[in-house]
Specification:
Blueprint: H1 7-18, H2 27-38, H3 43-53, H4 57-66, E1 78-83, H5 86-90, H6 93-104, E2 117-122, E3 133-136, E4 139-142, H7 146-157
Parallel strand pairs: 1-2
Antiparallel strand pairs: 1-3, 3-4
Length: 164
Amino acid sequence: MEIFFDEQELAKVNEIKSKYPHSKAALMGVLWLAQKKFGWISKEVAEYIAKLLDLPPSHVDGVVSFYTMYFKKPMGKYHIQVCTNVSCMLRDGDLIFDHISKLLGIKNGEVTPDGLFSLEEVECMGACGGAPMIAINEDYYENIDIPFVENLISRLRNGNGTSA
């Protein structure tokens, strides 16, 4: 796969860079843009971003490896993150995670064979008042339960979900 941004994406990169005095500060936004396009931050994508922003590849690798929001391997079309930290755990977040794991037949950090779903157990996602919560891609769901999750996964399997 060839790694490059098209003209519109390069314009977005320049827009992100224009907000900061140094291109180094634009790195996280450009990585997010790259992840949306390529699905994950491969070594080749990281090297491309390093050249694009005139940064050492080691700096880009350091940022990618530090932040959990950047995927270091291919993930499913629908990446499900389940909070199991204290507030969510007290409201069955751990049971919801286990249920999703069994429902999809995958464990933490794995992807379903069809590439449709990936699953990740995460620490606090900042919605303690709405616990338990999950995120699917960039959609957040609070005060969930097992029937809600089963329904949502069924809709996503059938192409009727809201996450994209």
